[in-house]
Amino acid sequence: MNAEILCVGTELLHGDIVNTNAQYIAKKLAEIGIDVHYQSVVGDNPSRMKEGFHLGFSRADIVICTGGLGPTKDDITKEILANFFNLEMVYDEASYEHVKTMYARFRKDMPKNNMRQTYFPKGAKILKNDNGTANACILREKTDGEQYKIGILLPGPPKEMKPLMDEQVIPYLKQFSNEVVFGEKVVVVNIGESAAEEMIMDLIDNQTNPTIAPYASAGKVIFRVTAKAKSKEEALEIIKPVKEELFKRFGNNAYVTESGLVEDRTAELLLEKNLTIAISESCTGGMVASRLVAYSGISKSFREGFITYSNEAKMRTLGVKKETLDKYGAVSEETAKEMAFGAAKVVGTDIGVATTGVAGPDGATEEKPVGLVFVCVYYKDEYNVLKINATGNRDTIRERASTSVLNLIRESIEG
C-alpha cells in the first residue's frame, strides 16, 4: 500500500509553523513498509481542501491528514472527508463525554462550539485523544471505483498527533502490510557530494533491495541504506554487505550513527572510551559545545567550554602566548594548537579542542580571507590540526567549522 500525507493549515503555508508532522508520519509509515509517494499542504479553504482529498485518493490508498479538527468554524476536515465518501456526519456520545472531561481537567466551562468535535463521518473508527479535546478518526470506505480507500484524520498539534500515530494508527495499519522498512545512515565526511556519489555509482546503478539514497548536509554526505524485509533482523542482514562495501570505499571518512549527526557519533565514542573533553572556541562562539551537549549523558565526558573571542581572553584563560599571537595571528595553526592544549591543561581533561577563524564578513585580509578556519584536537600529547577554507555566509562558515572539529574529535579517538 502507499500513502499521501495531507497537512491542513494556512499557518503552514505562511511559514508561521514548521511542518514537522509530515516528517514524523512518513518515518512511522516507512517502518511498517507503507511508502509515501506524495506530501501536500493546503490552507483552511473548503474548495482547496476538497481538491486535496480528491487528488490524494486518486493516487494513494491511504490519505493521512493533520489539522482542522478543532472547534472553530474553519475546522472542517471531517466534513470534507465525509463529503468525499458521500457520508453524513453523526453525533458520538463518547466524544462529547471526552470533551467535557478534558474541560473539567482544565477547570473551564466547555464552549458551545466544541460540540463540533463530537461529530464524525458515519462509520468512522474514532480514536480517543488523551492529550487534547479533538478526537481523531479512521475511515475505510469504497470509492466510486469500488476500491477501498483509508482516510485518517489526526489533530495538528504534534504533542497530540504523535501519540495517536504511535499507539493507534500504526497498529491499525499493520494489518495491511506484511513488510518492514529499515534503514541505516552511513555518514561520509571530507568528500563532496558529487565525488562521494561517483565513488559508489556502480552500487547505485545496480541497486534493488537495499536502496542507497544520498543527500548532502553541512560538511557531510549521508547515504541512507534502506531495505524491505519481513523483519528488522532480516533487513539488517540485507543491509550489511552494502554497508561493509561503503566502509571499504570511504575508509575512515565514513561512520554510522542513527541520527546522521556527527556530534552524536563523537559523543558515543567519548562515552564508550570514558574520555573527558574541554572545548575552546573563537569563531564558532559556543556552537561546538552546544551541539555536543545536545547528546544525553555527555556530562560524563564534557567538562568545560570557553568562548575566548578576543586575544586577551585567549592569553588570560588558555595561556596562549603573546609572542604566538604577534607572530602568527589569532587565526593560525600555532594559535589553534595553544588553545587546544590550554583547554586540556586548564581543565585537566584527556582531550582539548580549539576553533579559530574568520567567519566574516568583516576582519578578512588577503592573507587570511573570510572562511579561513583552523581547528585543532589535542589528544595523547599529539595535535591533530585541520585547515578549512569554507564558503558561504557567516552562519554557514561557523556551522562548517563546528562540523569539521566534531569530526576531527571522532577521527582522533578512532585513530
Automatic annotation (TrEMBL):
Species annotation: Sedimentibacter acidaminivorans
Gene3D superfamilies, alphabetized: 3.30.70.2860, CinA-like (3.90.950.20), MoaB/Mog-like domain (3.40.980.10)
UniProt GO MF annotations: nicotinamide-nucleotide amidase activity
CDD domains: cinA
Similarity-based family: Belongs to the CinA family.
MoaB/Mog domain sequence ranges: 4-176
Keywords, alphabetical: Hydrolase
NCBIfam families (alphabetical): cinA_nterm, molyb_syn, PncC_domain, PRK00549.1
Protein's name in the database: Putative competence-damage inducible protein
